[in-house]
Amino acid sequence: MRLADRNPQVAPARLVAELVPPPRFADARFATYRPDPNEPSQAAALAAVTAFADRLAAPPPRRGFFRKAAAPAGRPGIYLDGGFGVGKTHLLTSLWHAAPKPAAYGTFVEFTHLVGALGFAGTVDALGGLRLLCVDEFELDDPGDTVLVSSLLSRLVERGVALAATSNTLPDKLGEGRFAADDFLREIQALSSQFDAIRVDGPDYRHRDAVDAPAPLAPETVRERTAADPAATLDDWPALLEHLARLHPSRYGALLDDVTLVGLTGLAPVADQNTALRVVVFVDRLYDRSLPVLASGVPVDQIFPPDMLAGGYRKKYLRALSRITALAREGATR
């Protein structure tokens, strides 16, 4: 079957119901996070997020008739800042599992899609009763979306919702010019006092043992291996890109329902920024579902041209390359 032949319809209620950690992180817990002993910031981040979870789980302070309410023990939000593959998402999903419910979890992009589906007021109402909202991959490269989501989070904090967020720094910018707390606090002034920012450094765990993408497969090999799996899909890369352009990105997850393996032939660098940004969302949904990839054409780490990797959306593209390379390695071992 081809993904390009699928046209899923996604009701707004499904978008809300799916605000939970993705299958890849369904079993993530604080106890299974393994800090790198050479990176002390990872152990410190684990301790800080665990303490935040404990504070959320603690009963609220009692108020007497003549007694003022106790001051909060800390800020209502925690923000994990670090490079690719240092375990921030593992920590964030562990927090979701440990926190009292109701709680919601989604990527920055998923929350912008939710506002598009429900409207701003509808989204505030849908999420306003939560105990915790987790936002993975917070992004500052689109001013409009940044203002939208920061306004949403401000409204939710007013309703007593605790926040947790992660974001990526560029690996070559750690320590200087980094996307870290300074940029976050500057760009989202309304939320600056709500977050405790925690730095998480280290190498990308997805590529500790191998850095380069696996060699591309022959088109015949991709076709043979996908034909052997009745739940696999097989698409020509240009045709799939055209199909993604016709679908709203909020439907990319449903596009992969019941799929176990994704085959792609004719992989080539994308030609424009809009296509590249759609590919980023598509790769994120592949990675969420732990779907191995079989590909022919250029190596998977060459789908974004050098000029894009040097541009304003480079952190998105680097994250996507890290993820699709890991999925291609998984596919190569099948």
Automatic annotation (TrEMBL):
BP terms from Gene Ontology: cell division
Claim: rRNA processing is one of the keywords in the record: no
Protein name from the UniProt record: Cell division protein ZapE
UniProt entry keywords in alphabetical sequence: ATP-binding, Cell cycle, Cell division, Nucleotide-binding
GO molecular function: ATP binding; ATP hydrolysis activity
Organism: Cryptosporangium phraense
Cellular component GO terms, alphabetical: cytoplasm
SUPFAM superfamilies for this protein: P-loop containing nucleoside triphosphate hydrolases
Domain of life the protein comes from: Bacteria
